[in-house]
């Protein structure tokens, strides 16, 4: 990892040690003990050490960081970092995050602040930080986009069905009857809507019309729950209905596969 960022040596003299090598979903309390004890031992052995930078998968990163916040008995900084996109991925954040972690761990200003988490050019306290995006820090765009419209004369028709108190399935059924290529449901709250509206969306799915669940509230996201997935819905994540419509239109130029369309909603 350090070989990918030789600039790190300009920040500090870095001594690398692999304490544990598992995916973060397989990090257990026994590993917390191993890591905390090793950091404490290194600090006790080396009075000249400025701090410690810990690389970690993001799934359980916040838990490990908080454990270290409670169990490393030294004022020197412990900085935990990870990556939402692996080093093998285009536009990986792994190298920048590692560089930032080394920089913060070696800075005198970091001392006495407890364990820290550095990701996405931000420094967070281990006590307060939490993972809020299950997929990536940035969405794909421009040069990284898979959509090529150079040979497309017309986009598939996708319409938005708006939910509100007392709405039934009239509009949704009419859209299916009109032969639309896809429907974005601008739902209430976290994507749910009145039962007659949802029943019509189920009829659309049964008719092989892709249905994206979005929300028309100001902020937040529609989460890909097991219930939505089993019902055949695609969720818009935090895309507003009008933008989810654009993405679905483009997605339908590539595929009608629900799983692939869902991937696109989470990546862009």
TrEMBL record:
Residues 2-137 form the L-asparaginase N-terminal domain. Pfam families: Asparaginase, Asparaginase_C. The keyword Hydrolase applies. GO terms for biological process: L-asparagine catabolic process. Its EC number is 3.5.1.1. Residues 157-265 form the Asparaginase/glutaminase C-terminal domain. It catalyses: L-asparagine + H2O = L-aspartate + NH4(+). PANTHER family: 60 KDA LYSOPHOSPHOLIPASE, L-ASPARAGINASE. Belongs to the asparaginase 1 family. This is asparaginase.
């Amino acid at each position: 990892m350090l070989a990918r960022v030789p600039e790190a040596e300009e920040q500090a003299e870095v001594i690398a040690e692999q304490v544990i090598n598992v995916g973060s979903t397989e990090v257990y309390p026994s590993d917390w003990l191993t890591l905390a004890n090793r950091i404490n031992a290194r600090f006790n052995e080396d009075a000249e050490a400025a701090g410690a930078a810990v690389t970690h998968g993001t799934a359980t990163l916040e838990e490990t960081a908080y454990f270290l916040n409670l169990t490393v008995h030294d004022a020197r900084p412990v900085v935990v970092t990870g990556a939402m996109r692996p080093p093998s991925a285009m536009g990986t954040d792994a190298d920048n995050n590692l560089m930032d972690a080394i920089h913060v761990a070696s800075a005198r200003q970091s001392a006495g602040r407890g364990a820290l988490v550095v990701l996405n050019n931000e420094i967070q306290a281990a006590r307060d930080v939490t993972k809020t995006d299950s997929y990536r820090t940035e969405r794909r765009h421009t040069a990284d986009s898979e959509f090529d419209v150079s040979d497309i004369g017309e986009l598939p028709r996708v319409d938005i069905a708006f939910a509100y108190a007392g709405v039934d399935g009239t509009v949704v059924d009419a859209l299916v009857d009109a032969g639309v290529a896809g429907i974005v449901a601008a739902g209430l709250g976290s994507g749910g809507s009145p039962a007659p509206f949802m029943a019509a969306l189920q009829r659309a799915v049964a008719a092989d019309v892709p249905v994206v669940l979005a929300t028309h509230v100001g902020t937040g996201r529609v989460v890909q729950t097991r219930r939505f997935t089993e019902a055949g819905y695609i969720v818009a994540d935090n895309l507003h209905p009008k933008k989810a419509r654009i993405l679905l239109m483009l997605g339908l130029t590539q595929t009608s596969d629900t799983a692939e369309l869902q991937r696109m909603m989470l990546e862009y």
